[in-house]
Amino acid sequence: MKKACLFAIVAALALPALAEENNQPQAAEYKQLSADFEKAQREFAATYQKTPEAERKNLKYPDVAVYSKKMIALAEKDPKSPAAADALIWALRHSYYDQSVGPQAITLLKEYHIESEKLGDACQMLAYNNSKENREFLNTVIEKNPHDKVKAAASLALGQMLSSANPAEAEKHLNAVIEKYGSKSQKESAKGELFEMHHLAIGKVAPDIEGEDVDGKRFKLSDYRGKVVAIDFWGDW
Amino acid sequence: MYPHERSLVKRLEGKPFALLGVNSDPKDRVRQAMKKENITWRSWWDGGNTEGPIAKAWNVSGWPTIYVLDAKGVIRYKNVREKEMDKAVDKLLAELEETK
Q1: Class assignment of domain B2-93?
Q2: ipTM score of the complex?
């Protein structure tokens, strides 16, 4: 399993909210809820920036569970509506923080929105939890959703989810993205995932890194052979 | 992460260990961070954003991403943090000591 970090999550959450204009008042409620959450997030980020590093662990991230549960309740009022699909997909996209709503969201999406063009947005987060429900849902998406980019998103998620638990199955899905369903960027992601499985797994000799430090001095990972090395991909954000 | 990494590097001074970064910030930002946070270990500068060639080659999609390699260059641990990272590095150092 690849661990997502706060940065990746925040980037994912920054995706434009999916909103439907035509089914009031559910759509309006969805819009309001997602806007409220985004506001809480922005406020958190601003406070975080202002807080010294040592005190940051005391800060509390907005309680996603509260919003997720409201999203599910909203969807349950009229689960067939497009706003319900938006709300359920929202809950799944934010399930990194609150996994408890995942099974409900999946059940409703499977029953009412399995052909939705928006389902691709829900698939990525499912990759982080290799559960029977998630696997079944993603396989159903591949089977029943008519849109190639959604099939590709589900295949990518299965490929990532199963890369260590079931490499043969993972490869099958990643190859389907490359050979059948994927957009250019989805194909790139699948290729990257396959490369990671083949060359960056535990037990493999790490590929060499050659590049420059911030002052333009060149150095290589292989210069450090004979030493234990920790490589940290980092950014000051 | 900085305080932990600082203490790891300090604790293992003189041991056959290196912490190497791959940094995805713009140059002025990374220079500022290295100064402010007292970052003494070396980093490759990966082009100023998260789409850099090294991160791309290593299929990195989340930050921080951590790899721990043994002295032969074999990937032994992925995404170990803080105490887990300490343990991983200590174990590999002990292993290296034994083979001497």
Answers
A1: alpha beta
A2: 0.97
